[in-house]
Design brief:
CATH architecture: 3-Layer(aba) Sandwich
CATH topology: Rossmann fold
Helix content: 25-40%
Shape: globular
Radius of gyration: 18 Å
Mean pLDDT: 93
Length: 211
């Protein structure tokens, strides 16, 4: 699958297995989501450009390398995407954070926008769009469209999800083929309600302890 990167690091897969377990409560779920997001972000940012710098050490001068180029923005899809922000900020604390609110109509399964607040310089930033689940792909595809409409280029956007369904991957590739997708697992399919099978249930409800 072009543009689909499956991050199969053992630590990520181990933590994802615990995250899926229906007996995992909200506190542990939040902690695991935070940890997995940090580990995934390490891989998602692997191609960030570097530039040489001179650093004065206690015993001499070293030629080292630091991140160059555009700055980073993290854009979670509300509400479950919020659970992925903290881990990434632990890794890259200078990143700015935008928010996109999209809900899926329970009848049509189509995305409906209700909120969009992005950094004012979004067109100058590398963007990581985050949401734990990529189910139908409607919310992610719509969120990417909203970001593009506010000046960002698709080539500067990366989509990061824990679990994806084949249907969601196909939609994202069809509507935004230039946007690379990073996932920890690709599951079997969607059920008649648009939930990923086997998935992990409703990520937002499990994250915040709601039903």
């Amino acid at each position: 699958m072009p543009q689909v990167n499956i991050i199969d690091h053992p630590l990520i897969q181990h933590k994802l297995a615990i995250l899926r377990d229906q007996s995992t409560g909200p506190k542990e779920f939040r902690e695991l989501l935070d940890e997995i997001s940090l580990l995934m972000a390490y891989e998602v940012t692997r191609d960030m450009p570097l530039e040489p710098v001179q650093v004065r050490t206690p015993v001499g001068t070293a030629t080292a390398r630091m991140i160059a180029g555009k700055k980073l923005a993290i854009v979670p899809i509300l509400r479950a995407g919020l659970g992925m922000v903290g881990g990434i900020l632990n890794l890259i604390p200078a990143a700015k954070v935008g928010h996109i609110g999209v809900y899926r109509d329970p009848e049509t399964l189509q995305p409906v926008e209700y909120y969009c607040k992005l950094p004012t310089d979004i067109e100058e930033r590398e963007i990581i769009l985050v949401d734990p689940m990529l189910a139908t792909g409607g919310s992610a595809a719509a969120a990417i469209r909203f970001i593009k409409e506010r000046g960002a280029r698709g080539e500067n956007i990366k989509a990061m999800h824990l679990i994806a369904a084949p249907e969601g991957i196909a939609r994202l590739q069809r509507e935004h083929p230039e946007v690379p997708l990073f996932v920890a697992a690709v599951d079997e399919r969607l059920n008649e309600h648009g939930y990923i099978i086997p998935g992990l249930g409703d990520a937002g409800d499990r994250l915040f302890g709601t039903r």
